[in-house]
Design brief:
It is found in: Cell membrane. The chain crosses the membrane at residues 6-25, 32-54, 74-91, 103-122, 128-152, 255-272, 293-311, 323-348, 360-379, 391-415. The structure is a single chain. The chain is mainly alpha-helical. The strands form two sheets. A four-stranded antiparallel β-sheet has the order 1-8-3-6. Strand 4 and strand 5 form a beta hairpin.
Length: 837
């Protein structure tokens, strides 16, 4: 029992020590990781000096740390999955894919280049084998973003630079550890085969890790849905995912556990936001930040404590070799950044990366917890010769601390020298406009507050004068700034609008107004719209107006299934989702119009706001048109869907009111629980997507066609057996010119346009009209395209059934022939309607 108490004392003491370091790092403007490493080394020296006999808490604390079993297995299996998962979860997947080319180059190619550069360079100065030197290269190839990202955030470095460094570190950990594992197996002779076999093993481990992590992440996204609004259960499941993906890949699939953890976290970060309940998502991010902070701190402290013991026998020869490792590693990194990356940009596979960014990425290649953990794993492997163990431990430790204490402490200075912490002219102009708007508003609010609290007039005047002075200075800065072109302002405004649009979708999703499936669809489309705006400005935005609500391949596939095989359910589901998408987009576009008039007009100017409004109105018109077409075709379903929206809003208001009553002590916790239980039951009913019935009553549709009106019921039934119903989507081509005519079509509802060659305007046919008869009468090919103007319910009569029908009904045959003849030879008294085959 005493031993357990002492170990608890050691761990608790380390956590207490860690809690004091972030404020110290902020106070002295030192990267937290650098301070952590320094404290760990100092603590290791104190342990070696003062640990020993003693019964006071101080000696017990030091003795517990000296006896603590800090093995690489504990670090790799307990702390590393948490560290990797937290880092990957915080990555913006869309931004990651925007710069996927440079990131993969730095994360995979740079790892191999560094491994071989360091390995061959060190092999020239030591008698150790090449594999041992390459193993050292793989260990030091893994970068640590913790200190670098902290500096970036403090100085306000560009977002893209942060994404490049985060993405590189996230993926190169996986590549470096996979390569390290292969080289360690080769060194200990547990792996057979040459370089080709090793390369195949690497690809297998990497690909297997990606697949395992992806599958685990998707399974958790499915499992988490029944747990909605259960924050503790949802967050616990993500913690389990980090460990399960690692263990399953590493010990059962035979792939890279590190890659699996990263892949599963990226799936949760991209897909999970719409699967995990909105109220839980923010709490989950905070929990993972805390877990990541603990994991990173404990790995650094526990490994840094061992440094004095590992470096005890190091001499000047080892110092020289450490400098060789430093030179080789950074030379390899420079070759990739300044040699290979421009080739990638030149080939059009990546956006150009500026030289200032490359310089910061070169100098910011710090090493940290992962490298120290891998070095510790080598020292614990009894198959590795003692000389190699000592060599790796000293080289890695020395290299890590050189990067931390030299590069880490001077990176802030480098960013300032390169002026990467300064705003661009466009950003500075935006800052001044936003600051002027905010300062003007705050000045008025300060005056109101002073009046409310009856502050003396002199005090109020002094405070208002300060804001007046700030406004004058901002106005002066605005005169000196580089003038923004009208096109720059429009592009800035469009980027703001697209980002705001996605935020509003998530806000409606969190309020229960938008379903998960629709949210995923809208988020993906918003991402593509943002890419189009960044690449082409207003032209990209306009080009995306119609495709934004265009029919997806899934929708067209569902329509084909209904048309060819009479399978209705997929089409009904797609039409239901389209209703909800259009309503959500219309609601958000109206909110964006108000946002543009109220906020953007004051920041970007009235002229730019007017143009932005015009583009929003254009999109809104397209959405309104598409929604009107659906409402006309399915008016009852539109009412049901709108009732569902109102019902969701009502439930949300009810819940807020109940919690207000509880906060005011009007109702007890028991009453609140009972009321919320009832709300949850009603919410489940509302969450079910109402079914849209697209199955057609052919007999009813036949009665809508004037040609068949007034026929006896038995005759309508007979005709109905020969016809089949078909739904045509807006813009869908029903008949193509040059096709063989094998059917004619009756329009039960809707309208089509006939695109006749050499005719200036298309001919419109509506409910009750028919087309396609000419090809059946003349046995010739189609002579025009026919396209649906809206949702059209058609009755299709095949060629064989057409001949059977007209043979039995002379009146019908003569009517169809008369219409066809009139279309071929229009008279002065009748409109010119071309023959439609």
């Amino acid at each position: 029992m005493h031993d357990i108490v002492i170990q608890v004392l050691g761990v608790a003491g380390l956590l207490a020590l860690v809690s004091f370091l972030p404020p110290l790092a902020a106070r002295f403007q030192v990267p937290y990781t650098v301070l952590l490493a320094g404290v760990g080394v100092a603590l290791g020296a104190v342990i070696q000096t003062f640990a020993g006999p003693g019964k006071d808490p101080f000696h017990d604390f030091l003795n517990s740390l000296a006896e603590l079993d800090v093995s690489s297995d504990i670090l790799l299996h307990v702390f590393l999955p948490i560290l990797l998962f937290e880092t990957a979860l915080a990555v913006d997947v869309r931004r990651l894919f925007d710069d996927l080319g440079p990131i993969l180059l730095m994360a995979v190619v740079a790892v191999f280049v560094c491994t071989f550069a360091v390995g061959y360079a060190v092999s020239l100065f030591t008698s150790l084998g090449l594999v041992a030197c390459l193993l050292l290269g793989a260990i030091v190839a893994s970068t640590d973003p913790a200190a670098v990202i902290g500096i970036f955030r403090d100085l306000g470095a560009p977002r893209r630079l942060t994404t490049l460094v985060e993405g590189e570190s996230l993926l190169n950990d996986a590549a470096a550890i996979a390569l390290f594992t292969l080289l360690l197996e080769m060194l200990t002779r547990t792996s057979h085969g040459g370089l080709g076999a090793a390369a195949l093993d690497f690809l297998r481990d990497f690909a297997g890790g990606v697949v395992t992590g992806y599958v685990c992440g998707r399974i958790v996204c499915m499992l988490v849905e029944p747990m909605r609004n259960q924050p503790m259960a949802e967050i616990t499941l993500t913690v389990a995912l980090a460990y399960l993906s690692y263990v399953l890949a590493e010990h059962y699939v035979g792939a890279s556990g590190v890659v699996a953890v990263v892949a599963s976290a990226l799936v949760i970060g991209s897909v999970g936001r719409t699967r995990i309940s909105p109220a839980t998502w923010g709490a989950m991010e905070h929990v993972w930040q805390q877990l990541g902070f603990w994991a990173n701190s404990m790995i650094f402290l526990l490994t840094a404590i061992l440094v004095p013991r590992l470096m005890a026998d190091a001499g000047w020869a080892e110092v020289g070799l450490v400098l060789v490792v430093v030179a080789a590693a950074f030379a390899a990194r420079a070759v990739v950044l300044f040699g290979l990356l421009p080739v990638l940009s030149w080939a059009g596979l990546a956006q150009k990366v500026s030289n200032s960014y490359k310089s910061v990425m070169l100098w910011g290649g710090l090493r940290g917890a992962v490298s120290l953990t891998l070095a510790l794993a080598v020292t614990e492997n009894f198959r590795v010769p003692d000389r190699v163990q000592s060599f790796v431990a000293v080289m890695v430790t020395g290299f890590v601390f050189v990067t931390l204490f030299v590069n880490g402490t001077t990176l802030r200075w480098l960013i300032r020298v390169l002026k990467l912490d300064e705003l661009t002219p466009v950003e500075r102009a935006m800052r001044n406009r936003a600051l002027a708007l905010s300062t003007d508003s705050i000045r008025d609010r300060v005056a109101a507050v002073a009046q409310t609290y009856e502050v003396d007039g002199a005090v109020k005047d002094v405070m208002i004068a300060r804001y007046e002075e700030r406004l004058k200075k901002i106005d002066q800065d605005s005169r000196d700034e580089t003038k923004l072109s009208n096109e720059d302002r429009i592009t800035i405004g469009l980027v703001i609008l697209v980002n705001r649009e996605e935020e509003l979708y998530y806000a409606h999703f969190s309020e229960g107004m938008v379903s998960r499936a629709v949210m995923e669809l809208l988020a993906g489309r918003s991402g593509r719209l943002l890419d189009a705006v960044k690449a082409q400005g207003r032209n990209g935005y306009r080009a995306f107006e119609e495709p934004f609500i265009a029919f997806s391949p899934w929708m067209r596939g569902a329509s084909w299934l209904q048309r060819r095989f009479g399978i209705h359910r997929p089409l009904a589901r797609r039409l239901s989702m389209r209703f909800e998408v259009l309503v959500a987009v219309r609601t958000v576009l109206r909110e964006l119009l108000a946002f543009t008039r109220d906020r953007l007009a004051r920041v970007l100017g009235q002229e730019v706001a007017f143009e932005l409004e015009g583009m929003l109105v254009g999109r809104l018109g397209i959405v309104e048109q598409a929604l009107s077409a659906l409402k006309l075709q399915y008016p009852d379903y539109a009412v049901v869907l709108q009732s569902r929206y109102v019902g969701r809003a009502a439930l949300r208001l009810e819940q807020a009111d109940y919690r207000t009553l509880y906060a005011e002590s009007i109702i007890s916790q028991e009453v609140l629980t009972d009321l919320e239980r009832d709300l949850e039951q009603r919410r489940r009913v509302l969450e079910r997507l109402p079914k849209l019935d697209v199955r057609f009553d052919v007999a009813e549709l036949v009665r809508r066609v004037p040609l068949f009106a007034g026929l006896p019921a038995e005759r309508v039934t007979t005709i109905a057996t020969l016809l089949r119903a078909q739904l045509a989507l807006p813009g869908e081509t029903i008949v193509r010119k040059g096709e063989r005519g094998d059917a004619m079509f009756f329009i039960a509802s809707g309208a089509v346009e006939v695109l006749v060659p050499n005719l200036a305007e298309p001919v419109t046919l509506g409910t009750g009209d028919f087309f396609g008869e000419m090809a059946l009468l003349t046995r010739q090919r189609r002579n025009a395209d026919v396209r649906a103007l809206g949702y059209c319910q058609l009755l299709v009569l095949d060629e064989k059934d057409f001949r059977r029908l007209v043979q039995k009904d002379a009146n019908l045959q003569s009517h169809i022939q008369a219409v066809a003849e009139a279309r071929r030879q229009p008279t002065k008294s009748s409109p010119a309607v071309p023959a439609v085959s």
